[in-house]
UniProtKB/TrEMBL annotation, chain A:
SUPFAM superfamilies: 2Fe-2S ferredoxin-like, CO dehydrogenase ISP C-domain like. The keyword Metal-binding applies. InterPro entries: 2Fe-2S-bd, 2Fe-2S-bd_dom_sf, 2Fe-2S_ferredoxin-like_sf, 2Fe-2S_ferredoxin-type, 2Fe2S_fd_BS, Aldehyde_Oxdr_Iron-Sulfur, Beta-grasp_dom_sf. This is 2Fe-2S ferredoxin-type domain-containing protein. It comes from the Bacteria.
UniProtKB/TrEMBL annotation, chain B:
It comes from the Bacteria. InterPro entries: Ald_Oxase/Xan_DH_a/b, Ald_Oxase/Xan_DH_a/b_sf, Ald_Oxase/xanthine_DH-like, AldOxase/xan_DH_MoCoBD1, AldOxase/xan_DH_MoCoBD2, AldOxase/xan_DH_Mopterin-bd_sf. Gene3D superfamilies: Aldehyde oxidase/xanthine dehydrogenase, a/b hammerhead, Aldehyde oxidase/xanthine dehydrogenase, molybdopterin binding domain. One of its GO terms (molecular function) is oxidoreductase activity. Residues 138-153 have a biased composition (Basic and acidic residues). This is Aldehyde oxidase. It holds the Pfam family MoCoBD_1. It comes from Bosea vaviloviae. Residues 138-167 are annotated as: Disordered. Residues 22-136 form the Aldehyde oxidase/xanthine dehydrogenase a/b hammerhead domain.
Length: 172, 749
């Protein structure tokens, strides 16, 4: 079948849980999860920075794992639980990492921020960031062109310390 | 009135923070409309030549494709070249998308596919067939530099090199100590995280609302009106959030033209978002070659400074920056010769990128100063103190303020510079060579005419508005702080609206001038508001302020209070009501003023910095890390230490990228940029950035702007790359004079 017979004409049904809500959707097999979120579901908090899995701006949580949504086709998500930046705050209260990002000034233009926060939330759950160096390493899939990196590390460190997962280091 | 303030001068979190951390901040490609069409650009495969045939038949046959625009069928736009000029462009003929069959650079837009969905537009774009007749191109500056020329028409706002002073060649020849070398900086691309995008909302009746990735909504508005022959009432540009600019959004980019063209032709809303690859088809920092020669006495005192630079530009515009003037400004010498030339390449026009020109010229100058320090045996900091400029010798005027000495002293102390063993390769830990280097930084401090409006409602809430942008600089926040203090309100009672062309006039956000300019405009509008409110409060029957003068009162906690008797006060809400309306409004402009602009320059305004850097280099593998940076900055009044620190950290990260990572590589056989992605064009990642400490040196400046501000957006990058190169020399004994300093250069050097 020629490609353009598929693009934009056929759809495939999927059932997902999106930000805690069950959704039944008909998606084009050529559409990425990122474009599904941004174009079809008006969830533009998830950002497109490169569309090639190189910048991390599109990071979302799929079944709790941080994943570049530009590298996922929408049709692959059947049965998955997806959380985007819009779904992190619960009952009007920001996630502790969202608050820490504000407090630590961990962003400037804000465009990479949703991806940084989703990535950071998963990193905290992964439980293997025990030092600032490890935070830096495990957050290096998310580019921040404004260069807020030291503040991003501060914000994640704050939440790890709050949760008792991390001992505050003396000055490095 | 900026004394005893509550908010100004104190660290405050960004007021746009909650929107940004929850995904509610809306960027250019995120606005939508019913019936929105999606556009996708087809780029040229050659760098120079003509299109001999273009066939869109197959693309147009794809279900869902609305139209394919090419030079053969695109609607007419303005004829004269000047109609395409924008507020900040250089001399020349601006690029006109799809204007003819001529190809001027690789990946030039040759067609625009518009379709019902993004997927369809992207797919159909791959089916557009283009045939070319190729002509020889030149994209290699190392060859084109031999045909360099002094730009015949100067770019507005860019100072050409000053006239030579003394006889620099002769003095250099006679100097007992001489250093002379060539220093080069690679082409760089801005790569803001948000790709350039424009969403045009067709409002009907020929009116459009444009959401553009821009650092100047009124620049985009004026461009669209001029090019498409529209009245400015028919074009409104609204861009409240911008996902990074760094200069790439100063001039209208081709996606703005193409999206508006399609919307007007199809009479429907259109969105065009460039891909990351296509972000390399427009603005970039020009590759620049510096030749720098210093002649000095044995004690390091400079006798002669010669600095010549050749920078790349396009064949159709003379993009110009200030590259060499810094060498005549930072250090005094009796013999100075500075020259700046351009060389034409078959590329898109370069443009301003964070501190345009300065980190290029200063890399050369500050590397050469380090070489001079070694040649004379004088400590690098001491060498700079021995050659400290007390006045701007380029223009022969005093500085408005200059606390660079304090930057050197405080930066060196914080860094521990006195513990440095000057011998290269002498400091090591295991297999790691440790290098400590330093450099000076300098950037312009400007104020531009800007207007702002302040409206206080009967509910006690203050609304501030101005057309300027906040590209991540913190403008929303500092304007909130200034306005809250001026009216004695909590920051929560102030809202700031920016990035809308219908708001009071502002220049583009660039040149580090927004805080000084928009901040002064907000202050002026609030002053007028205070005067009106006070008059209205004093007129209230039985007013406790009836016999007071405005200087006798303070605005505090939502009241106008008599300073000598806090019991006598009027609620702001009552003062508003006393005017007979439900609000009080003031709009004011602030700027250098016509008189100030016409008089000869009475002083020079610059920000300064001293950057100290530690690098660690694996002696076998050549892998380098920048482990520690201390940047001491003198930039006048600091409005918000929290966001100000972030500005400097961001600048330092850019300096690290310039020094170690960033380089756009062109295959000169094809005339095409080859590493046009974020996996191959390297920018610093989190693991590349370690300890960065920012010091704001106290500096009082009453000449640059009425609020004492000099600007912070760019100074952080200037000098950082030179400090790193100097640290590399200290670690390894290798002097690397071409940026970026990649592993191959460290191993070979």
């Amino acid at each position: 079948m020629p490609v353009h017979a598929i693009v934009g004409t056929q759809t495939v049904p999927i059932d997902i849980t999106l930000n805690g809500e069950s959704r039944s959707l008909d998606v084009s097999p050529a559409t990425t999860l990122l474009d599904l979120l941004r174009h079809d579901l008006a969830l533009t908090g998830t950002k497109k920075g490169c569309d090639h899995g190189q910048c991390g701006a599109c990071t979302v949580l799929i079944d709790g794992h941080r994943i570049n949504s530009c590298l996922q086709l929408a049709v692959m998500q059947d049965g998955k639980e997806i959380t985007t930046i819009e779904g992190l705050a619960r009952d009007g209260a920001l996630h502790p990492l969202q608050s820490a990002f504000i407090e630590r000034d961990a962003f400037q233009c804000g465009y990479c921020t949703p991806g940084q926060i989703c990535s950071g939330v998963a990193l905290i759950e992964e439980g293997h960031a025990k030092s600032r160096e490890e935070i830096r390493e495990h957050m290096s899939g998310n580019i921040c062109r404004c260069g807020a990196y030291p503040n991003i590390v501060d914000a994640i460190e704050d939440v790890l310390v709050q949760r008792g997962q991390f001992m505050k280091e003396a000055a490095e | 009135m900026l004394k005893n303030d509550t908010h100004v001068g104190s660290p405050r979190s960004r007021v746009d923070g909650p929107a940004k951390v929850t995904g509610q901040a809306t960027y250019a490609a995120e606005f939508t409309a019913p019936d929105l069409a999606h556009a996708y650009v087809v780029g040229s495969g050659i760098a120079r030549g003509t299109i001999t045939a273009i066939d869109a038949t197959e693309a147009e046959a794809v279900p869902g494709v609305i139209k394919v625009f090419t030079h053969e069928n695109r609607p007419g736009t303005a004829w004269f070249s000047y109609k395409y000029q924008d507020m900040v462009g250089p001399p020349g003929d601006p690029f006109r998308p799809l204007a003819s069959d001529e190809i001027q650079f690789s990946d030039q837009p040759v067609a625009l596919v518009v379709a019902e969905s993004f997927d369809v537009a992207r797919h159909a774009a791959s089916l557009v067939r283009v045939c070319y007749e190729q002509q020889p191109h030149e994209t290699d500056l190392s060859r084109a530099r031999h045909d360099s020329y002094e730009p015949p028409r100067k770019r507005t706002g860019i100072a050409p090199p000053p006239k030579p002073r003394g006889d620099a060649v002769k003095a250099f020849g006679e100097a007992p100590v001489r250093v002379s070398a060539e220093y080069t900086i690679a082409t760089e691309h801005h790569n803001p995280m948000e790709p350039h995008a424009t969403t045009v909302i067709w409002d009907g009746g020929g009116k459009i609302t444009v959401h553009d990735k821009t650092q100047g909504v009124q620049n985009s508005q004026a461009y669209v009106a001029s090019v498409f022959g529209l009245s400015s009432d028919d074009v409104r540009v609204v861009s409240p959030y911008v996902g990074g600019g760094f200069g790439s959004g100063l001039r209208p980019q081709h996606q703005l033209f193409l999206a508006v063209m399609a919307s007007l032709a199809l009479e429907r809303s259109v969105r065009l978002e460039l891909t990351r690859q296509q972000m390399f088809s427009h603005v970039h920092r020009p590759e620049t070659i510096n030749v720098l020669s210093l002649g000095a006495d044995r004690d390091g005192k400079l006798r002669s400074i010669q600095h010549q630079a050749v920078a790349a530009t396009s064949r159709f515009e003379d993009h110009q920056e200030v590259v060499v003037n810094w060498s005549g400004l930072l250090y005094p010498a009796e013999n100075v010769d500075l020259r700046y030339e351009l060389a034409k390449l078959d590329t898109y026009s370069p443009g301003d990128m964070r501190a345009p020109g300065a980190p290029l010229g200063v890399f050369a100058l500050e590397s050469a100063m380090d070489e001079l320090a070694i040649a004379t045996g004088v400590d690098p900091v001491e060498l700079r103190l021995r050659n400290y400029a007390e006045r701007d010798e380029n223009d022969d005027v005093p500085f408005s303020s200059k606390e660079l000495r304090a930057c050197y002293r405080q930066g060196a102390e914080q860094f521990g510079w006195s513990r440095r063993n000057p011998k290269p390769g002498s400091m090591r830990e295991g297999r790691e060579l440790i290098g400590w280097g330093m450099a000076s930084g300098v950037w312009e401090a400007n104020m531009m005419k800007t207007s702002a409006r302040a409206v206080l409602g009967a509910d006690g809430r203050l609304a501030i508005s101005c057309a300027t942008s906040d590209i991540g600089t913190g403008t929303y926040t500092i304007l909130t702080q200034i306005a809250a203090d001026a009216l004695g309100l909590a920051m929560e009672d102030v809202t700031v609206e920016l990035g809308d062309s219908s708001l009071p006039t502002s220049p583009v956000q660039g040149g580090s001038w927004t805080a000084a300019s928009a901040g002064s405009a907000v202050m002026a509008a609030c002053q007028t508001l205070r005067e009106t409110l006070f008059k209205q409060a004093a007129k209230i029957d039985g007013s406790p302020l009836a016999d007071a003068a405005i200087d006798d009162v303070a605005f505090s906690d939502g009241r106008i209070v008599l300073r000598t008797d806090a019991a006598r006060s009027v609620l702001l809400a009552d003062a508003v009501g006393a005017g007979g309306h439900d609000k009080v409004e003031a709009e004011e402009a602030a700027g250098p003023g016509l008189i100030g602009m016409m008089l000869p320059k009475s002083h020079a305004s610059y920000t300064h910095a001293a950057v100290f850097v530690e690098v660690r280099i694996d002696e076998d593998l050549g892998v380098m890390r920048v482990t520690r940076v201390v940047n001491a900055v003198a930039a006048g009044r600091i409005l918000n230490p929290k966001t100000a620190r972030s500005q400097i950290i961001g600048g330092v990260v850019w300096g690290i990228g310039m020094a170690m990572h960033e380089e756009t590589l062109t295959d000169h056989r094809l005339g095409r940029m080859m590493n046009h992605s974020l996996s191959e064009y390297h920018v610093p990642a989190n693991a590349d950035i370690q300890d960065i400490e920012v010091i704001f040196v106290e500096e009082h400046d009453d000449k640059t702007s009425p609020i004492g501000v000099k600007g912070l957006g760019e100074i952080g990058i200037v000098g950082t790359a030179a400090a790193i190169a100097n640290a590399v020399h200290h670690a390894t004994g290798k002097r690397i004079r071409s940026l970026p300093i990649t592993i191959d250069k460290i191993l070979a050097g």
